[in-house]
Every structure is written in C-alpha cells, then in structure tokens.
Amino acid sequence: MHEQQSYICIPITESEPGRFLTACGEASEAADMIELRADYLDLDMAGIFKFLEELSLKSTALLLLTFRPSEQGGMRQLSLGDRRQFWDHLPQAVIDRLTYADFEFDLVESYAEGQPPVSWEKVICSWHDFEETPGDLQSRFARMSATPAAVVKIATKANRITDCVEIFRIIESARKPVIALAMGMPGLMTRVLALSRGAMLTFGSLRHGAESAPGQPTAGELRNLYRVRELSPESEIYGVIGKPIGHSRSPLMHNGALRAAGRDGVYLPFEVDDIDRFVEDLVRPATRKLDWNLRGMSVTIPHKLSIMKHLDFIDEAARRIGAVNTVVIRGVELHGYNTDVIGAMRPLDDLIDVKDAMVAVIGAGGSARAICYGLAERGANVTIFARDVRKAETLAAEFKARAASLDSFSGSVDLVINCTPIGMHGHSQGQSPIPAQSLKNVKLVYDLIYNPEETSLLKDARTAGCRTLGGLAMLTGQASEQFRLWTGKGFKE
Ligand code: NAP
Q1: CATH number of the domain at 239-338, out of 3.40.50.720, 3.40.630.30, 1.10.274.10, 3.40.50.10860?
Q2: Which 3 state secondary structure label does DSSP give 6?
Q3: CB 62 within 8 A of CB 32
Q4: How many beta carbons lie within 10 A of that of residue 300, not counting itself?
Q5: Is residue 2 pLDDT above 60, yes or no?
Q6: Ligand 1 contact via 366 beta carbon (within 6 Å)
Q7: Cis ω on the peptide bond leading into residue 91 (within 30° of 0)?
Q8: pLDDT, tens digit, for every residue of 231-245?
Q9: Closest residue CA from atom 43 of ligand 1
Q10: Ligand 1 in contact with 69 (CB < 6 A)?
C-alpha cells in the first residue's frame, strides 16, 4: 500500500453553468476533491475555458478536471483531436489550479512521446468499460501503469458481484496511486471499501440523481453511513445478500448499530444473482478469493432457501421453517439461523398471549411459515387463508393448522396476521387482503408490512376498534437478533 492522500471526490454533473457553480460550492463542503466534468457543460469550447478560468479563481477546493467523450461515458461527441485541442488550449491559470487532470488511456498514449500540457504528476490515466469487467483487466492495467501518468484509473461494469474480486486485485497489485471501481449495484462494495484497501480516491455523488456513473452512492453515504474514512483492511464486514437489494433498510439499521456499539465495521448491500459462486469466491474462508474480514450476512429474497446447502450448521428453527435469514461466519464454517420468528413474535408477545387464541394467518409464503412456527410453539389455534388453498394446506399440515381459501375469510377470530404483500407501497398500497366488515369482532390485527407504517388493513382495523400492530417492530426485531448473533449484543443493549 502507498503512503498517500486519499479522497472522497464529488463529480459535478450539471449542464447549466450557474447550477454547475452552485454545485461546486455545495460539493466543496462535502468532499475532499471535486471533479469538474467539463463535458457536461452546455457551452462551446471558448465558453468552457472562460467558465473554468472564473471558477478556478473562485473555488478553493482541490480540483480534478475531466473532459470525457461519449464513447467513454461522457456527455459530448469528441474525437481524440477535439480532446487534444481542449487540453492543449486550456488556459494556464486553470492548469495551475488543478490537482489532477483525467486523461483517457488513448489520450495519454497520444502524448506518450512528448510532454502533455499538464505535467505527468497531475495526470490520471483512465479507462472505462460500461458493459462488463473483462477478463484481460490485469494486462490492460499493466499497460496503463507503464505510462508516465501519475495515477491509473479503471472503472468497469460489474455484472455480478464476483467481478469485484478483479477490481480489488487491481488495487492491491498497484505500484502507483490507483483508482479502481466497479460500476452498478453489484459493484458497490468496491466504492465503499476502495480507500481502506489502498485506492487513492472514491467517487460519491452530490445527491441522489446527480451520479456520474451507475451505482455511485452519495458522498454523504460514503462518509456518514459507510464511514469509509474509518475503515481498514481489518474492519469487520457484514452485509445483506439479495436481489433486488438497493432499497433494503438493513444497511441503515446495521451501520447505525455498528456505530452506536463503537465497532470497527461496515454493513453493505450485496446484490447477488449466483449464490453458489458468491459463496465460493467471496464468503467461504477456505475458497474465497478476497482476503477480508467478512463476519456475517443477512439473507433476503431470493436466497433464503438457496443459501442453505452451503451451510455447515443450521439451527433448529431455521431448519423447521425451511429458510435462513442470517449467516454467521465462525472460523472456517458458515452457520445459519432464522431471526424472523423471534422478530415477528416478540412484539406480538408484548401485546397478547396467543395460547389457545383463534388466529387467522393470511398468506402461505415465507413469512407465513415463520409466523406459523412461532404460533405453533405457543399453542395457538391457527387457520391459514391463502388464494391458493393447496399452498395453505401444505403449510397447515406442517404446523398442525387448518387451511382455507382467502375468499372464505369472515372474521370470528381473536387475531389476524397479514403475511401477504397486499397493501404494501409499490405493490398494492391502498388495498387490503380482507374486507373491513370482517374485522368487527377481532381483538388484534397484525400487518407484517412496514411501508406504509399504517396500511389500509390497519386503518380498517383501527376504525373497527381492534388493536393494531405494524411491521416495523418485526423489521427492527429480526435485525437486532441478527446483530446479537454477530456481535453478542442486540440493538440498544
Ligand atoms: P412470499 O414468500 O412471497 O409470500 C407472499 C404470500 O402472499 C404468498 O402466499 C402469496 O400467494 C400471497 N400473495 C401475494 N400477492 C397476493 C395477492 N395479490 N392476493 C392474495 N395473496 C397474495 O413473501 P413473504 O416473504 O412471506 O412476505 C410477505 C410480506 O410480508 C412482504 O411483502 C412484506 O411486506 C412482509 N414482510 C415483513 C417483514 C418485516 O420485517 N416486517 C419481514 C418479511 C416480510 P402465492 O403463493 O399464491 O403467490
């Protein structure tokens, strides 16, 4: 690793000069360096020069200047000749203010024989692949490293999370300052862990919607959520595997808990398609290709079942439910647990004793299984209502419950638990799985949905005079139990 400065850099991606200037001001507060993406500016070449001259006089930030052609991810149609013209005629006052100038690899090669207008110590030699992370990355990187440019930058598209391994190899094998990252959601961990593994710089956008490349988190997230500045190669790594994973609330909860507990660790979203390859290349200590301190993972849709064949131990509840939502890495082994039961049942236990209670479980999917397991343990009298009665029957047979079709639900129970997505934001918000009039004599209605906090079902229940419980307590409860499995303590202990 090099003794070097490391930077969180915000790219400025406004096209209108006034807004570009404002964004520079805001970014200087939030970042160590700002990247002036001159290719975004809606000005002709002379206009850009004049604008950059004024900006470099006003700004006190460390500046990186980039003028990217469209075929390499930029916003302008630019030939190599156009780019040469830009750099060759850039006012000296601007050049003097730059900390770094980004030259695409072909531009660097075009100057290789002579002296570029910006001295080589300020040149970042960059190469991008927006389609994939190619197999010949190391040889390309070697050729780029052999140029006189001070820094090498490689950015490729991660089509699968295991592509990140190649990016980390680049960072770790670098003999000069390096920027290497994988674009897209599966590549997110390269952006978060880059600095801790020796990269010179990582990019964060000024705000959501202002990204200069796919998968770029905001600079605020890098600094405050993932705390990239505080991480080292020894930091504990946790994460959630699933797909899609971009909207998971788990990173917010677990990173907050890690910070509150004063632990040197970070929790990442892992977008995983191929669970077998992910476990082999990144998780199992005996086979993984990345030397990192991975300690545990949350597991969500669609991997709660498919992870099971990879585990060396599965606890009793997870085995009976047939789903694992938590993995703990103990030595060389992977251990699986299910914290959904405890997460779902504890808030319910606080409100009602379900022993011998008449309970209607709506839905027969994954969370219904966890609920049925918890209810069976407590001796409740359960009927499962599902649109597909055969699914309800299969589940009922396992947990000594009864099965019925969803249409036949008419009330006459103590407790209703919704385990379907009906009413969920982005799915069917505003709808309810059962008619409002069927809730008249129900004591408590529990909806596992947490977004919105009050679903239509819960609104109907409140109107009918029932007690209500939403899904937020389960969400934090199951996460807290995961945290306890990894660290020995739950949230707020
Ligand atoms: P799942 O395994 O996909 O099961 C969903 C169940 O709902 C299935 O029985 C499905 O029936 C049924 N269903 C789906 N759409 C329906 C519709 N339009 N009409 C009638 N039935 C329908 O999902 P899950 O993991 O059990 O999760 C269910 C919901 O619980 C999630 O959407 C989420 O909001 C909530 N949840 C909350 C937490 C929390 O921490 N609070 C945790 C897990 C889940 P088919 O099998 O016929 O498709």
Answers
A1: 3.40.50.10860
A2: coil
A3: yes
A4: 18
A5: no
A6: yes
A7: no
A8: 999 999 999 999 999
A9: 367
A10: no
Return the percentage of the chain with pLDDT > 70, whole number.
Answer: 99
Asked if 395 contacts 369 with a C-beta cutoff of 8 angstroms, the reply is: yes
| CB of 319 shorter than 6 A to ligand 1 | no
Burial (CB count within 10 angstroms: exposed 0-12, middle 13-18, buried 19+), residue 18 = exposed
* Ligand 1 pocket member 459 (CB < 6 A): no
CATH 3.40.50.10860 in the chain is located at 239-338
249 C-alpha vs ligand 1 centroid, how far in Å? Answer: 18
The residues annotated with a catalytic role in the active site are 128, 153, 304, 340
**Atom 28 of ligand 1 has which residue's CA nearest to it?**
420
Question: Does the CB atom of residue 419 touch ligand 1 within 6 A?
Answer: yes
Given ligand 1 and candidates 324, 326, 367, which is best to mutate, with the most ligand atoms within 8 Å of its CB?
367
Residue closest by Cα to atom 33 of ligand 1: 449
pLDDT digits (tens, 9 = 90+) for 382-413: 999 999 999 999 999 999 999 999 999 999 99
CATH number of 342-475: 3.40.50.720
Q: What is the mean pLDDT of the chain?
A: 96
Q: State in Å: Cα 363 to ligand 1 middle.
A: 6
- Is residue 462 scored above 70 in pLDDT? yes
Edge-to-edge order in the sheet of strand 98-104: 178-183, 151-157, 123-129, 98-104, 62-66, 33-37, 7-12, 201-203
Q: How far is the CA of 348 from the centre of ligand 1 (A)?
A: 19
pLDDT digits 0-9 by tens, 154-211: 999 999 999 999 999 999 999 999 999 999 999 999 999 999 999 999 999 999 999 9
Outline which parts of the chain fall under CATH 3.40.50.720.
342-475
* Domain covering 7-221, topology: TIM Barrel (3.20.20)
pLDDT score of 114:
85
Residue 452 Cβ inside 6 Å of ligand 1? The answer reads: no
Those residues whose C-beta lies under 8 Å from the C-beta of residue 228, and which sit 6 or more positions away, are: 8, 192, 193, 194, 195, 196, 202, 222, 266
